[in-house]
């Protein structure tokens, strides 16, 4: 392909920006090697949202290995508290490097730095000040708002509360994602450890989660099956650009997860886990029903609507994460999940875009995903992994329902052999990866019979 366009949003995290520039450099170097060291005149390698470009004709590229080493070192230093370049994440919207210039010096020195020092004693990792920030925000806004709905209800307040929770639930879910994998996000052996254990039982129902179900479904089930045929949230039996298949996928989770998940554990001989999963799910439903009977209006806006929204969001997200499955090796984490380098997933949701990295190592800390990706870039290329940018999981699902493969192909950042593909070839590749698997193919590819 003679042209590439990599959009560098000004809202990208420093890590994501560095990685996209690194990948654009690889594309540019590849084309230069094919054209005797010159970039093709039609090439547009890194296009900023303001219209400026990187990769002008005749630019001399440094060897990729040298650049990769420097970029990996830069990313590593950002995560290393012992490095002078270390940057904790304090807020989702602003990077530490920007706060010094954005804030008055007195506020930066006398308020922000002492807060960071304190929060780092509370958080499990010194990078994770943002998790302390968010927990304070949730308990200072969501919880009082919900209590006020029960004390003095108004529809205006109810709608405002739902909108607030709708803004929070993405980031909260990914905070909990870190929590369930790491068994907590706050410091061990401190007075905060009890709060770390208790806060999900308070906050989860307000954010649309049922007690412990995320842990049992995601950690004990999804990561065990890895989108394979026994995974209740597997996409392989669905045509991933068919809206009716998607509706069936969402509907099954919506209405039957309460029985499907316990029965899954029973089929696997994990009776105790199945009983626990069923107990917590039904207990939460019972609590919501009792609250609805006590105060229907307040409970509707505080608990039921967030639950319905969250269940839809979880399935839309999982569909986007596992929509593209390579039939040649569908049980490979590289070929059954994707990587997104985008603002919503990575700036606001704890690097959730690095889904392949997460499946390769579910215990990997969220700040380490970009480092891993860059260190393993050649492996990703050899394994034909898919990397997208300037699009999130929600919009991947929407574009698939529209069957807009051209847009998806434009969002693809080619790596490895994909760099030589034309846009038409990328479209055909993506279409192949969304094809439904027959039961015969599932048995051949996964070595199992139908398990449902």
UniProtKB/TrEMBL annotation:
Pfam families: FA_desaturase. The keyword Transmembrane applies. Residues 48-69 are annotated as: Disordered. Residues 51-63 have a biased composition (Polar residues). InterPro entries: FA_desaturase_dom. Residues 171-382 form the Fatty acid desaturase domain. The chain crosses the membrane at residues 129-149, 246-265, 285-309. Keywords: Membrane, Transmembrane, Transmembrane helix. The keyword Ribonucleoprotein does not apply. One of its GO terms (biological process) is lipid metabolic process. This is Fatty acid desaturase domain-containing protein.
């Amino acid at each position: 392909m003679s042209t590439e366009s990599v959009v560098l949003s000004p809202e990208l995290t420093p890590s994501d920006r560095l990685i996209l520039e690194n990948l654009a450099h690889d594309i540019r170097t590849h084309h230069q090697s094919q054209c005797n060291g010159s970039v093709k005149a039609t090439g547009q390698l890194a296009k900023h949202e303001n219209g400026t470009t990187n990769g002008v004709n005749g630019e001399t590229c440094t060897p990729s290995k040298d650049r990769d080493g420097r970029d990996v070192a830069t990313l590593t230093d950002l995560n290393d508290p012992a490095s002078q370049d270390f940057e904790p994440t304090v807020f989702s919207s602003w990077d530490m490097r920007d706060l010094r210039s954005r804030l008055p010096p007195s506020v930066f020195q006398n308020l922000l730095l002492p807060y960071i020092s304190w929060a780092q004693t509370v958080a499990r990792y010194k990078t994770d000040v943002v998790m302390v920030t968010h927990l304070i925000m949730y308990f200072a806004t969501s919880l009082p708002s919900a209590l006020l709905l029960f004390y003095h209800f108004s529809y205006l307040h109810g709608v405002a509360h739902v909108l607030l929770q709708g803004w929070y639930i993405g980031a909260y879910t990914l905070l909990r994602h870190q929590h369930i994998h790491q068994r907590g996000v706050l410091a061990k052996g401190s007075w905060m450890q009890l709060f770390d254990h208790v806060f999900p039982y308070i906050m989860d129902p307000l954010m649309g989660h049922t007690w412990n179900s995320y842990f049992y479904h995601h950690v004990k089930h999804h990561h065990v099956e890895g989108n394979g045929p026994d995974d209740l949230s597997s996409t392989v039996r669905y045509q991933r650009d068919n809206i009716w298949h998607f509706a069936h996928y969402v509907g099954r989770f919506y209405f039957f997860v309460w029985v499907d998940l316990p029965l899954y554990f029973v089929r696997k001989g994990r009776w105790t886990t199945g009983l626990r999963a069923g107990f917590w799910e039904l207990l939460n439903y019972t609590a919501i029903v009792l609250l609805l009977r006590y105060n229907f209006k307040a409970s509707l806006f505080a608990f039921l609507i967030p639950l319905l929204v969250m269940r839809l969001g979880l399935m839309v997200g999982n569909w986007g994460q596992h929509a593209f499955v390579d039939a040649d090796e569908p049980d490979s984490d590289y070929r059954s999940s994707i990587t997104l380098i985008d603002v919503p997933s990575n700036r606001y949701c704890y690097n959730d875009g690095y889904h392949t990295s997460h499946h390769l190592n579910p215990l990997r800390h969220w700040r380490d995903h970009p480092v891993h990706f860059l260190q393993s870039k050649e492996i990703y290329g050899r394994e034909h992994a898919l990397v997208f940018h300037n699009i999130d999981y929600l919009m991947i699902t929407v574009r698939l329902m529209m069957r807009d493969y051209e847009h998806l192909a434009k969002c693809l950042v080619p790596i490895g052999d994909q760099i030589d593909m034309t846009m038409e070839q990328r479209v055909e590749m993506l279409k192949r990866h969304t094809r439904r698997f027959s039961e015969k193919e599932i048995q051949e590819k996964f070595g199992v019979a139908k398990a449902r």
